[in-house]
Design goal:
The protein is α/β, with parallel strands linked by helices. It has helices at 7-16, 28-33, 66-77, and strands spanning 21-24, 40-41, 57-62, 81-87.
Length: 97
């Protein structure tokens, strides 16, 4: 599953997927400036250290969608089921600090 969804569609699909994880691959600094509620932050350069079970569905986002696409490609390559839901730059919902 290597598709790109717009972030609102991706969040809806996340909520419909059992045991799914929302992954923010932006830097720690960007994450602390505002992120989607319930997301886990693993900066893209630290993705090789991911320790989630392989059967965990992962929905990935970043700021614009470029890093999340690379991250989803990488995660799919190493055996995860990852979906790029794009970037939060155009997201109009609530972010948490």
């Amino acid at each position: 599953m290597n598709e790109t969804l717009i972030i609102e569609e991706g969040l809806q699909k996340l909520n419909e997927t059992e045991n799914a994880v929302l992954l923010d691959v932006r830097s720690t600094e960007e994450y602390h400036e505002g992120h989607l509620e319930g997301s886990l932050n693993i900066p893209i350069n630290r993705l090789p250290t991911i320790s989630l079970p392989k059967e965990t569905p992962i929905f990935v986002y970043c700021l614009s969608g470029a890093r999340s696409k690379r991250a989803a490609d990488f995660l799919n390559k190493i055996g995860y089921t990852a979906t790029n839901i794009g970037g939060i730059a155009g997201y109009h919902g609530r972010l948490v600090l």
